[in-house]
Amino acid sequence: MKFSFKNDYSEGCHPTILQALLQHNLVQQAGYGEDEFSLKAKALIKEKINNQHSDIYFVSGGTQANLIVISAILKPYQCVISASSGHILNNETGAIEATGHKVLSIETADGKIKPSDIVPILEGHRNVPHQVMPKLVYISNSTELGTIYQAKELEELSAFCKENKLYLFMDGARLGHGLTAEISDLTLEKVAALTDVFYLGGTKNGALIGEAIVINNPALQEDFAFNIKQKGALLAKGRLLGIQFSELMKDNLYFELAQHANQQAMKIKKALQKRGTEFLSDTYTNQIFPVLSNQLIEVLSEKFEFYVWKKVDENFSAIRLITSWSTGDDAVNRFIEMIEQN
Q: What's the confidence (pLDDT) of residue 342?
């Protein structure tokens, strides 16, 4: 049997969630997210972000969340700004462009966007009305490269967006991992205060499926539910998502699971650092990108699954290792042992 470090959604869901789904299976509830579990989950999220005026919607996946948010809040002639590594640019089959919104790419070394990165795009789109209008800045935390935004970075980006009348949207597929990284000084409350929209990813952090879209900007809240329905994302059995987020949000399970995943990744990172391994990016989340010899990668592939991320030269490549809420010490220790033996 191979241990998988390919992703953080290989397993079903956390046992607590499975038990809750089973426990409430035969309890009749209202449909379309009006069930008591969804209402409870929304109340818990509002409490944690310290904003009773945010609107919350549950959808099944990250691509769905990105597509619905962006297509709902942008006018047909407006476009999105994303890092070149952004999920909407590389891993969503052109879902955003398919809704009629162009994605403008910014080359970044660490997957993060700074205000200075956006300036050239704004300056290059002043030929009104002949060019698309940049209107939304899309970021991820943690990023596709496993890096995170610190509070000051997000504050500066948020202030720049407000000054330039841009919306700030945070993809939170791995937000739990970003916030619980050992170097992070961001909080969920601060994320809510600094973004127009963000979402809490459940799929990659213990849920069976599900993301919680949080709309903080009142100007973007009106009629948003119509977009959920029109895009086929309004589940008749909304309880499926409500029960999961209710369990994840109570007793801080959401953050405990993410923190565990981060800690397991850091064990591997430290072991690799001891042997002098270089990394594609300096990460503190559950994604790490060590640069290893192709020979060692071949040996590790016999017992573990992971992605070969990028070829560095003829003899070395960067691989991506992802740990999850369920990654046990056995898998981590065996990986470390093989590294030390080779």
A: 84
Specify the amino acid at residue 121.
I
- How far apart are the C-alpha atoms of 199 and 245, rounded to whole Å? 12
As a whole number, the mean pLDDT across the chain is 96
- What number is the average pLDDT over the span 84-108? 95
CB 220 within 8 A of CB 196: yes
Question: What distances in angstroms separate CA 198 from CA 23, 58, 103, 315, 333, one per listed residue?
Answer: 31, 12, 18, 41, 35
CA-closest candidate to residue 166, choices 205, 196, 139: 196
3-class secondary structure for 232-247? CCCCCCCHHHHHHHHH
Q: What percent of the chain has pLDDT over 90?
A: 97
3 state SS of 19: helix
> Do the beta carbons of residue 96 and residue 169 sit within 8 Å?
no
Q: Which residues of 114-150 are buried (b: 16+ CB within 10 A; e: fewer)?
A: ebebbeeeeeebeeeeeeeebbbbbbbbbbbbbbbbe
N-term to C-term CA, the chain: 20
Q: For the packed helices 36-49 and 239-249, what is the interaxial angle rounded to 10 degrees? A: 40
Burial annotation 210-221 (CB, 10 A radius, 16+ → b, else e): bbbbbbbeeebe
pLDDT band at 279 (very low <50, low <70, confident <90, very high): very high
Euclidean distance between CA atoms 33 and 241, whole angstroms: 8
Other CB atoms closer than 10 Å to residue 35's CB: what's the count?
A: 23
ω into 317 cis (within 30 of 0): no
237-249 burial: b if 16+ Cβ within 10 Å, else e: ebbbbbbbbbbbb
Nearest-angstrom CA–CA distance, 144 and 92: 13
Report the alpha-carbon distance of residue 69 to residue 140 in Å, rounded.
14
253 pLDDT above the threshold of 90: yes
Tens-place pLDDT, residues 206-226: 999 999 999 999 999 999 999
CA-to-CA distance for 154 and 172, rounded, in angstroms?
14
